[in-house]
Amino acid sequence: MPNLEQKFYDEEDAEQILRLASSLSSPVGAMSRERLLATADELGISPEAVEEAERRINQSKGELLERAEFDRRIRRDFYGHLASYIVVN
Q1: Residue 23 in contact with residue 17, Cβ under 8 Å?
Q2: For 43-84, how does the pLDDT look when each residue is reduced to its tens digit (9 = 90+)?
Q3: Cα(15)–Cα(11) distance, integer angstroms
């Protein structure tokens, strides 16, 4: 006899389950934009909200890349100056 008891998940657990299920169903772990929009539509999320979320994620990724480049440049300059200091002294 099937279990008729309804199970509820909080938002975080549901998101983790859906992410894992999505990664298991897709061999490369990627989702097309069309599929993303279709999934959002099924969940009642507007295309505008998806576009805003995409924009914010791309912006934060860009900021992280800029910060990583800045850190590399600072580190490279520091070690260049340190090498000069050691050679001169």
Answers
A1: no
A2: 888 888 888 888 888 898 899 999 999 999 999 999 999 999
A3: 6
> Hey, where are the domains in the chain?
46-89
Q: Looking at this protein, which amino acid is placed at residue 12?
A: E
pTM (whole model) above 0.85: no
- CA dist 72 and 28 (Å) reads 30
How many CB atoms lie under 10 A from the CB of residue 78? 10
Taking each helix axis from N to C terminus, what angle separates 47-88 and 33-42, rounded to the nearest 10 degrees?
130
- Reading the block at residue 29, the tokens are 């772990």
Residue 76 one-letter amino acid: R
